[in-house]
Protein 1
Amino acid sequence: MERLGYIPGDSFLHRLDPRTKLGLLALLSVVSMQGKFPVLLALTALLVAAFADMRVSMRGVFGAIRYFLYLLSGIFIIRLFGEGSGWLPQLDISTAAPAALFCWRLLIVVLGGAALIIATSTAALRGALVWLLAPIPFISGVRAAAMLALLVRFLPLILDEAAQTGEALKSRNIEQRRNPFIRPIYFTGVLFRRVFARADELSDALQSRCFSDNRTPPPLRFGVADGWVLVSSVISMVIVLLYL
Amino acid sequence: MNPESSNKGGEIDSLVIRKMVYGSLMAALIAVGAFIAVPIGPVPIVLQNLFVMLAGLLLGGRWGCISVAIYLLAGALGLPVFAGGSGGIARLVGPTGGYLIGFAPAALVIGWLSGRGGGRFIVDVAAMVVGTAIIYAIGVTWLGVVADLSPKSALLVGMVPFLPGDAVKIIIAAIIARKLRFRIGLFPSASDESGAAAYRD
């Protein structure tokens, strides 16, 4: 899997209502940030089971989020070095366990987001967001939901373009330039030109398809399974926050 | 997101569609900016608040603010778009939540001031200085309250170390905005009144 994206399927997660899936992601982000080792282990097992049920290999998922994994390694290394009394950072082995736990928590949230993106079509996600935003005054739920769905789709595109821009600048010896401002200016300038060109293509495509406020919303079905999943998840969250 | 910008059939004006797409793109860039660090000499700078400032400069106050609001909404829903790949309401109300919330008024003010100045370099720089002050005013106050720090400690921990990097980012953002503004086509020339109105809307 090169990029994260919707993969049609009939897994348990695919069959859930998109509103339930958004609720689960919100609960997952709270529980993973508060939970300790056994809770994180249980959440990881659930996520691995969910990916297996969707017939998506963990290797593929990690490949798709590889840039995030590089960042996570950086965070782990930074947290491994204690504050030390001098100017030089000092390796502090006692911080290894908390640093690993912190990175594990972040990884769980990102894997939860990946599972949501793989199991939910853009149309279904948009439908759920329109429903969520409908009660908020002065906001067009249709447009806000469309923008959120576009944001999700733009993320992997920008990461790809950023990687390509970085490589292209490296191959042109940007690292040899003495002026330290040249690198960020060129990098950001080129990246913006590339991604805005892609955005222009997208807005032309939306216009040519008569993008409007009166779009037929995708059907949302909140079934019995959704009710059970949400109720049991909320109860689990309360137990974790109060007792674990 | 004015409903009046669509006709009776609900079809949305082409300029509004373009601004919506650009707004989503800027929101995604702000999210990705938290992951991208570009080295300047020995110190890497994270591009997130650089992109927030560019959202205001390139899209104007209103759409810059909408773009940041969409980014915050995505994070509040749990999507991993905040720094360090986290998300969720907990992050918004945590010690650094004030900085995130401060991004929205900062983009609004930067875009508004820059629009009034017709895109002049010095006005852009001044607008970003004001925007950065807004981010710190909200962020440092929030940090002090949530982490129970004295105002002096909150300033020392949550603002002073980042000021040199911010000065660099302001200069870089002003240079990039100058190069990209007319390529993107939303920003009018100072003499074009109809264009100016479209930019403000």
Note: Chain A touches chain B through 60 residues (CB under 8 Å).
Protein 2
Amino acid sequence: MTRAGLVRKSAYQDSVALLALARDLRTTAGVREVAALMGTPANHDLLRQSGLLTAEAESAGPNDLVIVVDADSESHARAALARADELLEARQRQRRSTGRVLPRTMESAFRQLPGANLALISVPGAWAAAEARKALRLGLHVMLFSDNVSVEDEVALKRVARDRGLLLMGPDCGTAYLGGTPLGFANVVPRGRVGLVAASGTGLQQVACLLAAGGEGISQAVGVGGRDMSRAVGGAMTLDALDALGTDAATELVVVIGKPPAPEIERQVEDKLRGLGKPAVVALLGGKAGGAPGASKVRRVATLEDAAAAALSALRRETWTARPFSGDGAAIHRRIAEARAALTSGQRAVHGLYAGGTLAYEATLLLESLLGPVTGNLRPHVDGIHRVIDFGADEFTLGHAHPMIDPASRIEGVAALAKDPRVAVLLLDIVLGHGAAPDPAGDLAPALRAAREVARQEGRTLHVVACVIGTADDPQGLAAQVAQLEDAGAWVLPSNAQAARAAAGIAGANL
Amino acid sequence: MIGDLFARELRVINCGLEGFAQKLTLLGVTVIHVEWSPPAGGDPRKAALLAALEDEEA
């Protein structure tokens, strides 16, 4: 085997571009392993751990591109590096073909685009707060997609934003819709009457997709970042966004999505909702459900699916009650019973491998209520046979693309779980839309088949239960993605909540 | 002010993942992409200090 590498000085590439480059090179003849990354200290460590750190790579700085290839022969390694050169050149040519010199800073971009009103920032977390500060100083609203931003920076940025009457969405704001335009990871949904404020990207996506399935659309959807309603941040952007939705002519009903806030923030949010003069649905996962005290137009619900269903009913002026499954209940219970009957006596656990953080959290809550303790990175101090992992958490994404783009971490997770004789059900989410991988179900399907086969050879049936967060109009196509998962042996349910309940049922929960 | 953002046409400065700018362009949104690379020689602390200094000057 031959190892070869190249370092390109001052050739910064974003994480998605690096992933695309590595993917392409892996398909080059004779190539066994590829690393394509920037020469940051963290990436030096990664290369060292995987035994790929060459002397040349060690000299690379954070702005230098490093490519290392392991190949069958020297000629294959050389051919792969030549291919890398070709791809990087093609990218440069494409940029030059626009005939415009791209700005290198926020300030010069602002000069080149008069009337700019929004900065969409997705640089690595260590740099994100500084770029957001520059944007706010220029009077721009900000969508801060980047994660790994400290709470101290978040508080400071939101204080500046409020002082200037600006919206700062995020950090870790994956999804937003402004005036019908989808930003970040967003599904193709119609414009409509529902205004959303969400401390959760995938939670927002689930609600938007279920509204679309019910024939309703989004007026505005503001992502505020997962910590906005915490005591430290004080609900700054949630409260400002609610004020704006209150006066937005297109918004007839407001949905708030998040985790239970600090009590004093919850009171402020409720006061704000009462004063809106518009009906509201509140899904604070893990919080109370039912009518909010003294606010007949404010409905609290327990799940993301319930938020969409309650909103649809309110707009249609129909009464609504929560239901565990939207389809034929008897058929679903039969299928659960059949799946349960195929398990060995040792198979009792549900393992959830998630790309969406809020979807993982919602599944954890539902599994806990139906099966008992659930461990995982959302519940690191809990012991239990059931486990849910959020592969989009900061510890997995530092220096890597998000699992909605890069399936590698989840594929590894599926392979590891296949060998565990306690696992009855593998539970997963597939998230579609702009920004997500072009074929996420296709990326995971071979791993699902292989995992089921490993279990079969050991005399077990491994059940796969999934939900697909998407719409028929998404680039990946909802029906095609569902079909691929079903072809790989998965049971696909219409929502994350239903998938979690079905998984719990198979593992023995009394539904 | 936030209401203006809801009502007016979006004009976006994209700083980070280039794919987001490409998607917005396809949707007909006016967008300019920043050819960003880590400032201050790749030292985040130095970059944050520089930004804070600029903030004070502004």
Note: The helical segments of chain B are 2-7, 18-26, 44-57.
